[in-house]
Amino acid sequence: MLIFNEEVCKMKIEYDTREIQVLQEEINHLNPVDLAEELIHLSESDLAIWIKLLDKDLLADGFTLLPQENKIQIIESLSDEKTMILIKELDEDELVDTLQELPANMVRKLMNHFISEERRPIINQLLGYPNESVGSIMSVNFLSVKNTVKPSVAIEKVLNSDLDANRLEQIWITDDSLVLTGYVYLADLLRNKDKDIRKLSYPITKSVYATDDQEIVAKIAYKYDLAEIPVTDSEGRLIGLVPAEWAIDIMHDEHEEDLAYIHGITESSHDLYWKKSSFQIAKDRTTWLIICLLTATLTGFIIQRYEAVIASSVILTAYIPMLMDSGGNAGSQSSTTIITNLYSGQVNYRDAYKVIFKEFKIGIITGLALVIANMIRMFALDGVSTQVNLTVSITLLLTVILSKIMGGILPLIADKIKLDPTIMAGPLITTIVDTFVLLVYFEVASFFLGI
Fold it and tell me: The pTM is what?
């Protein structure tokens, strides 16, 4: 553990008074995001100096944005007094996020010695919510008033509150049973001190439960353009909120996760690329490659089964890659579109039949366009027989139609059975489509070529 008296001595050696004053002024004007980036790259001695010079509020804000190993480093370097100050400055949700990242022995130490008795019940409650649930990320710091009070009373409550300014822009309104009924903006209270607060309040557009998946918050914030999303219990009482800026973080995390699924990557963490070992990255990427390798065995069996068809018309093999690529691309287009609309709430599993019919029509239009282009290309460049041209073209049409339907319906099925729909947008749908393409291709070839 670093001793701050020693830090001060080092500070005198390495910096003169003027340099210290300039440094203190500069770092205390940093944005918390920029501060966190700077703290990551500091040496141990410079980190001790910065901690000594930083405003406690800014240090807490920057601390919450640090990676796990840097949080551990800072806590280990702090004296008990500084640790107590840091813990006190962290909001309950920020403290819970930190505790979830720390080793068990450090968590026990913080809980037993640095977290006050008054905060422990809410901390334990937040820690009890499932990972990636709304309850695990919500803030319990909010201001509410009953709908029977006057605006002047609400304003007085704001003036006496120790919440940050950004938590006081919206004041939540409840009835006498503490059931959430709406919210009012602080600016409206200040401008209309003599009016009925119920006439100033806005109705609740949407709320969530603490046990809901955190992704729901991002969807609601996006759909309704909300600054804060209220979290209620089963009886409608307000127990927390999720600010829109946190919803943006959720969107970012979910986007990274979706991209990983789409490209067949099972990411074990969100660590920086250079901080992860080659073995860990390889492990993250290998799972889906093995699955695709095993499922691709089906295509091998199909080719062996239709070996006589291929032997009778070897030219057919030249068009297998084109048909498989067309099917995979067509399916991925549909699945991506449906996943996007699932996320925004435009479609759900109950729309399955509508999706099938719409994708069927899209498949016919798209397939016919591809067939016309492909027939012209084959006659002009390949010089194949009419039977082969028809075989490839009809297979292409059926492939596109089938792929569009499968790409549209598979994400809905995944969503219904509580799987991430993006799983269906990557290697899985490509493998399934490839299998069906070969079956259709060789059956059509057998019919037209009389094999």
Answer: 0.60
